[in-house]
Amino acid sequence: MVKLISGRATRMPTPPHPHDDEIETLDRLIIAMLRLRFHLDTTAAGIGLSAPQAHALLRLGEPLRLGEIAGQMHCEPSHITGIADALEQRGLAVRQPDPADRRAKQLIATLEGHELRRKFIAGLLQDMPVLSPLNPADRATLLTLLRTADTTIP
């Protein structure tokens, strides 16, 4: 590759070519992500929630600060405010001061919220793309690989 720098042609190093298996891995991960997203959206709609509302409810196995939910969902905290409002209006969650820091708010699933969360998880696990074709040993291997690839989730 040649690039003009200060009016002179300068040879630039050629970027490395990805291996075919890297390209296939990337392609398969993207396809799996899209299939999982469609499954999540469809399952959420089946219980009457938007995908972001269902995703937030999925996080509420225990009380979480709104900022923690935003971090886990990779979105701005202001976005979580609207989601929390919708979950509260449906009677699925309540906001309460965090006992460790009363300035912060926690979102806590109600009994109805926990029941809908359980139903959502059951729906997600039924005929789940990517996991359904795998045997238990392959699922355990996949979980280990995912944990290794993403250390941001505790």
Account of the 3D structure:
With 154 residues, this protein is an alpha+beta fold. 56% of the residues lie in helices and 16% in strands. The protein has a domain at 46-125: Winged helix-like DNA-binding domain superfamily/Winged helix DNA-binding domain (Arc Repressor Mutant, subunit A, Orthogonal Bundle), CATH 1.10.10.10. The chain contains six helices and five strands, in the order E-E-H-H-E-H-H-E-E-H-H. A hairpin with a 2-residue loop joins strand 4 (93-98) and strand 5. Helix 3 crosses helix 4. The chain starts with a strand and ends in a 5-residue tail after the last helix.
What's the topology here?
Blueprint: E1 2-5, E2 8-11, H1 20-46, H2 51-59, E3 64-65, H3 66-73, H4 77-89, E4 93-98, E5 101-109, H5 111-125, H6 136-149
Antiparallel strand pairs: 1-2, 3-5, 4-5
Helix pairs in contact: 1-2, 2-4, 3-4
Protein name: HTH marR-type domain-containing protein
GO biological process, one term: response to stress
GO molecular function: DNA-binding transcription factor activity
